[in-house]
Amino acid sequence: MADPREQAATQLRNIEQSSGTTLAEFTAAVSETGLDKHGQILKYLKAEHGLTHGNANLVAGLVRQELEGGPPPEQDLLAAQYSGNKAHLLPIHDRLCEIARSCGNDVEVVVQKTGVSFRRNKQFALVQAPSSKRVQLGLNLADTPGDTRISEAKGMCSHRVDLTALDEVDDAVRSWISAAYEGAG
Questions:
Q1: Which sign, positive or negative, has the C-alpha torsion 57, 58, 64, 65?
Q2: pLDDT in tens, 163-182
Q3: What is the model's pTM?
Q4: 106/172 Cα distance (integer angstroms)
Q5: In angstroms, what CA-CA distances link 82 with 135, 165, 181?
Q6: In the chain, which ranges are continuous DSSP H helix?
Q7: Spatial CA neighbour of 27 closest among 81, 89, 70, 91
């Protein structure tokens, strides 16, 4: 299973090897410029260090983390997603995690800054709280289920459903998650 953290670590090793510059050296160089916004750092790395856009994007994110004291633990990332007026949505997230984990012992739950990814051999679902009113469940499904709550989507997931209350996480949602899990095997 492709782990995004392992992929980023490999990409960083390749960048350091090809550029001859370590992350610590990139961080020191950016620190000297006084730049602190991601886009500014990205442009600097491309212009001054000759990095491609993708490589500069990764390094810029890592440099910003280093300058801010390192990446936050996963619990902090999840707490930030459901803080303030989104706190009442956390039980929906927790139920979705419970369902995904019950699909099989090979489910990996990856907490990221803006969402939680469920993976098997590849991502099969993504949970986000884009507003204080709903949790969005993205699913990778082969077919669109015959339910008006679910719609086709573009991007990382083929389908999505908005959930506003815990009782909306019903047998249909459970079956969609299960189908997405099976499709990721």
A1: positive
A2: 999 999 999 999 999 999 99
A3: 0.65
A4: 22
A5: 10, 14, 25
A6: 4-19, 23-33, 38-49, 53-67, 74-81, 90-102, 171-183
A7: 70
